[in-house]
Specification:
Strand content: under 5%
Distance between the termini: 19 Å
Number of helices: 2
Order of helices and strands: HH
Shape: elongated
Helix content: over 70%
Structural class: mainly alpha
Oligomer: single chain
Largest sheet: none
Number of strands: 0
Length: about 60
């Protein structure tokens, strides 16, 4: 469950940058959003592999 909290925290931490980019057009915030989303993608992939490994172990 710790991994889920990690994802949730990461998404919540990006909220301000999403608002700055979409509402105010702040380009630097868009760069931070892209970087954060890439990190989120990598974390999600790691979780998928971990779940698959645990599933196959049983």
């Amino acid at each position: 469950m710790n991994r889920f909290e990690e994802i949730r925290d990461m998404v919540l931490s990006l909220e301000g940058d999403f608002q700055k980019f979409y509402d105010k057009g702040n380009q630097a915030a868009g760069t931070r959003v892209r970087k954060g989303m890439q990190e989120l993608k990598n974390l999600a992939q790691n979780i998928r592999v971990e779940v698959q490994d645990r599933k196959n172990a049983n």
